[in-house]
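User: Predict structure, ligand (R)-mevalonate.
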Amino acid sequence: MPAVSASAPGKVILFGEHAVVYGQPAIAAPVTGVHVKVIVQPNPLQPSGSIEIESPAVNFHATRSELPEQHPLHILFQQIEQTLQISRLPAMKIRINSTLPAGAGMGSSAAVSVAIIRAITRFVGLPVDNEGVNRIAYEVEKAFHGTPSGIDNTVITYQMPIYYVRNQQPQLIHVKEPITLIIANTGEAPSTAEMVAGVRQRWQQYPQRYEKIFRQIGCLVESARQILEQGSWQQLPPLMEENHQLLQQMGVSSPALDELVKSALQCGAYGAKLTGGGGGGNIIALVQPEQADQIARQLLRQGALHTWLTTLRPIQEDK
Ligand code: MEV
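Assistant: Predicted complex:
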């Protein structure tokens, strides 16, 4: 068996994070400038079922047998074996290389899962389709994040902007005009699982207040989808502002995120909001392409630890 590799991009949530866990729609897009690359090689000296995993960037090295039962990678290998209906995967070495920051809200756990699933299933000559990849990745996301909506694994599997409602087939969004976004990071790496659990606790305490916020977010996501598909992006900034405020009310923003949103607007971004689990992590800022580099530099001067640029582009239809 020759070595096989597979990659998966990062992701960004444009609108609807957290409310999506409660059945509201959300919009997400892939971030292709960062990725996880996985290389699978045969390990002929080891018995079948033996898997060695290394991820030099995070100083991780383990064998499958060392992983606890509940470890996401353990669940991942089991899920792959179940899906392929094989009792044991052949012996292999897996190397994970990533330019995707962990804990920054860019879907690193889902990207690792998707890239491993694609690489292993190709390695054994039994590739699975997007639906299969997505289903396995969702099982693993549950081990990482508790009660995820499934949006991260879905957008990373399909690698297209999507309109997503939990437990439904994702709908691809065809943006009419390019949308340029800066993603800027506060430098904190909060746990998405903890942020989602915090919202759940407050929702249980104040169900009416939280359900109203979730519904308001759902409504603005519907408007955002139409705007993206019609190409009238000038109408997006007020929706970004409203979404950020509703996330603040939910208790998932942080002083650093609010500060970065304010800085982005002062530097000339049209709109900005936190993205992903919150509590720190990333904001997105909608900018004019010609100003993107300059605004990104200013954000770095004003305290952002890192910035990335990403563009949602209309799909070129074949003539
Ligand atoms: C995390 O990227 C997005 C959240 O909405 C959680 C989820 O949807 O699983 C915060």
